[in-house]
Specification:
Blueprint lengths: L1 E6 L4 H12 L3 E6 L9 E4 L12 H10 L2 E6 L14 H22 L8 E5 L12 H20 L6 E7 L5 H7 L3 H8 L10 H11 L8 E5 L7
Parallel strand pairs: 1-2, 1-4, 2-3, 4-5, 5-6, 6-7
Helix pairs in contact: 1-7, 3-4
């Protein structure tokens, strides 16, 4: 049995990933605060932003991992806030890192030891994992750190038949992005205008990329920019 474990699958990119792997016949397990609405997905409810929350998942994860021959762990859960580095409270940064970085590390500790050859760990990054824009400091910091975690995963798991990589989506049409844009048509036009295709990315396009990577050890350690080609200005 092939098992997908994906965080933040209640909406957006995570939900699309869950659905895509269902199509391929994988058993799919979502870890998020809310259930994944896709029929056939098992949901473990957990607030990954809370310190220590992941440890409580161990009894539920153990039997599922024992039945799996191949596991794909996708670290997708994330949060983007409007903030600046010159006004970023330490506690606010700590909360963002808890969800984006520390929960991923905690899940790695639970799941990687049970992974066999052919398994994979996929990190969902961002265009902002390798550059920055003003006004989203904590998100930029967290995504840069996630690149480091992926590269450490590649080096430390060498020889075990487990591959890893990072997908860096560009502007994707998700609830989170729509919430940040609001009803501002000018902002939406500016964002879509940054793409060489003059549109937002669909979550299903990112899901298709993740499904390909799950079968592609040749991409071990790679950072893949999935952004439709952004115009440089």
């Amino acid at each position: 049995m092939s098992l997908l474990i994906v965080t933040g699958a209640s909406s957006g990119i995570g939900r699309a990933i869950a659905n895509r792997f269902l199509v391929d016949g994988w058993r799919v397990l979502s870890i998020a605060r809310r259930p994944c609405p896709e029929a056939g997905v098992e949901s473990l409810l957990c607030d990954l932003a809370q310190p220590g929350a992941v440890a409580a998942l161990a009894p539920s994860l153990a039997p599922r991992l024992a039945e799996a021959g191949r596991v794909c762990l996708v670290h997708n859960a994330s949060v983007m806030r409007s903030d600046r580095v010159d006004a970023l409270a330490t506690e606010a940064l700590r909360e963002v890192l808890e969800l984006n970085i520390l929960s991923a590390n905690a899940l790695n500790q639970l799941i990687i030891p049970a992974m066999g050859p052919g398994s994979s760990v996929v990190y969902i990054g961002s265009t902002l994992a390798e550059k920055a824009v003003p006004g989203v400091a904590s998100y930029v910091i967290a995504k840069h750190a996630l690149v480091g975690m992926m590269r450490a995963t590649c080096q430390d798991l060498a020889g075990r038949g487990i591959h890893t990589c990072m997908i860096c989506p560009g502007f994707t049409d998700t609830e989170q992005l729509r919430g940040l844009i609001g009803d501002n048509a000018e902002t939406l036009a500016a964002i879509t205008g940054m793409s060489a295709f003059d549109r937002l990315i669909e979550p299903e396009e990112i899901a298709e990329t993740v499904a390909f990577l799950a079968h592609s050890p040749v991409l071990n350690g790679a950072v893949i920019h999935a952004n439709l080609g952004q115009r440089e200005r």
